[in-house]
Sequence to fold (593 residues):
Amino acid sequence: MRWPLHLTLPALLALLVASALLSLVQGAINLPASDGLLSILDALFGSQLSQLEHYQQVIVMELRLPRMLMAILVGAILAQCGAVMQGLFRNPLADPGIIGVSSGAALGAIIAIVWLADSFGDWSIPVSAFAAGLATTLLIYGLAQSKNGTSVLILLLAGIAISAFAGSAIGFISYFTDDQKLRALSLWQMGSLTGATENNLYFALATLIVLAVMFQRQANALNALLLGESEARHLGIAVEKMKLQLIILTAVGVGVAVSCAGIIGFVGLVVPHFVRLTTGPNHRTLLPLSALCGAVLMLIADLLARTMVQPTELPVGLVTALLGAPFFLALLVQQRKHGSL
Amino acid sequence: MLQLEKINCTSNGKTRLRVNNLSTKAGQLTGIVGPNGAGKTTLFNVISGELRSNGRILLHDAPLNSWPALQKARHMAVLSQSSQIAFAFTAHEVVALGLTPLSLNKRDANLQIQTHMRMTDCLHFSGQNYLSLSGGERQRVQLARVLLQLSQAEKEPLLLLDEPTSAQDLGQQHSILELARSLCKERHFGILAILHDLNQVVRYCDHCALLSQGTVIQTGHPNEVLCEDSIERHWHYRPTRVALNGSATVFV
Fold:
């Protein structure tokens, strides 16, 4: 039984607003919800509505707000990329983290952090993450694709191999880097939203908008592709062109998400699957709802990461993995039952 | 409407299909017959452009590869043997995929979906999960999808059916072939259907092409092409022809 769209959409929007507000006022220091909201209005319109002390305003505006926005953007990007990848591979187990694309992108980003950022500037990190993510996606796609469709086994095994390779390469690089960079690298590898800056935010926002628009334009084609490539061609879809375009776009998305927030796994796996279960697999609704739901999940995961072990905080990637890994196992069991593994 | 001239399709240096001349007219139901591995599905793959070949394939007198993709999709559809879909779509949603090359408003689209589902007798399970349907039901859903795809054709459409009755019970086999015949007669479809039951070919098709070892050996009226001798030569089984009341005959 599916949930009707006219209820799901407002419910998700309400959840998004609620969790966004909660992430502004909850944390090591709890603030009254109304003041959290008012302080944003103050900052936007120069009013004096909130009762917050100056240092509390700084916490809201300079620490929590960028982080909240980054959680929304990265969550939405990762969930959309997961949904598109699953459509492209025609398999619910495709996720940028599981099939190794995130690891590939992370390797690219780390190479840039250690060697390129000093001489080429901050842009080298997302660009390098994108390039490595793209190369990984193309490699995996080439390996897993055969005449009879996509081989799940090769998909997952290639993911393991690539993650292992990227992991050891990252370890190798870390071994030769200085202590200060090492801590940044290891935190970043576990996924963290602490690095949200104004530039990063604009960059992630622009990426999300471009991806959302381009993906939505391919929603019908992605639906048709689920019948198989030949069938999609018979329906008038330029399959090769569309596949290449979507592979590049997902690599851009994963590259940007990784360069902004490190490796955050399972969002791209869990979210589209959940949306498919509740409102169906049609990409026209799956893609936007996944973006919303991914943003909500990321906000909640970040909130948990900040509040579970106070006064310190966990990397958000650990939390999503903690939530996502059991889900992944459940999905595997379910797939085995249906005989698709 | 469809003409194949001097087709030669090779892969890895081996000839997979050779067709000197094959054509079908609008309003004609052509049975494609031949033993296993004769190249029937290869013929469909060549016509639909999935396999490259030398030679000319013309649809309404224009080379098929010069047709714009969407125009081509509105005039030529293929019902293939595979009926997989990756996620849990409803039967209604699978049929709706036939709208991909069309431009219909939501109301007309829904109306068309229902009409075509009724046509192939699958309207009563339109809300069910496609993956939970039987092979025969899935095949009928896919048939509704390809018929919907052709519903806005400006010229007579071409439909390729790859074993459309393989998963159907006896009653459904005949209603699908009746439907195919009425599409030819009433809406001037040109249909090529790969069929294994030679009695069905004799009963429903106006025309027949016999393939063996990758070559179209003979074309003509089913009664001429399918005689005891040619069946024995290509299928290695000699049937007995039994005359029924009137002029109809069956092979047993």
